[in-house]
Amino acid sequence: MNKVRLIGLFAALIVACNFAAAQIHLKVEAIPGAANFYGVYAMVCDNVMPSGNTITGSGQVTVKFPAGLSFSNLTSMAGTWTQNAMVPNPVEAPGKVYVSMGFLADNPQIIYQPDTETLLFTFKLNGTATGAPELIINGVDPFDLLPNSASSNPGNELTVLDFGVQPLGLYTYEGNYTGSAVSCSETPQDTTVVTPPGDTTTQDTTVVTPPGDTTTQDTTIVTPPGDTTTQDTTVVTPPGDTTTQTSGLKDLRKEPKFFSLYPTPAYEWVTVKFLNPDAEGGTIRLFTLNGLSIGEISRGQRPELTLNVSGLSSGLYLIRYDKDGKTLQQGKFLKQ
Length: 336
Prior knowledge:
CATH architecture of the largest domain: Sandwich
Shape: elongated
Order of helices and strands: HEEEEEEEEEEEEEEEEEEE
């Protein structure tokens, strides 16, 4: 994981989404009633109201403890975590052991709720030395001043995409905490709640516009220059698509079109523009190219949806429009 690159990318997205600067904090603490066991917890700031439709995209936690203690029994509680690196007695911090745990998958899903601590994983320390584990402080801990003697990349990082708010929400690690409460900026979270799939309440027709964009929204179909999407004969079927294929090839030029995507390549924003602005209903779903579901947003009555994709890694992504149990159209865009 390139921590420096991720921090810079996510900081830019925070500004674009107009969120408060601090969203998620971490702590390590002894597990009550379990000798020598410790837990790492996550807690969102008191000014952040995540929806239930979040996806944790990446994460790393680095703890340090006195040499003479041994690390074992790493157990995932929320999300799937694994031990990435262990560095005993580095030149920068003799007498300490550094262990980094990396995030693998959001399974079981990490749930973030205001005023609630979420236990991410537990571990055990055994040995003759005395002392408790600590979370390192990014950029302050002597071993986190890169490059270090072990050519290691320690540090704490957590990144969460929220598809239940619009524009697409992003919550990131800001620092460490103690106790059972996190108090952050007084700036409220500036988002519009997106109705979860299956909710039949009336949607408004507000078009999400990237910050600083003062262009007038209309229903003109925008086709990116050089867009050869209609010439693609590769069939990519995301999970749940039961459409019967008659052969390995599919002539997309003969398929009806329900939306267009622009811009592509996309850097921060991608817009799904529906070709029939008077129609309504259905769900836009986002997948990786190998079919991993990233999230979904109900269309409601909106003529277009604008998604903030700055937090996604570079590569190709699939967007699928489903309605009444059928897949009406699939498209793809390149994220730069």
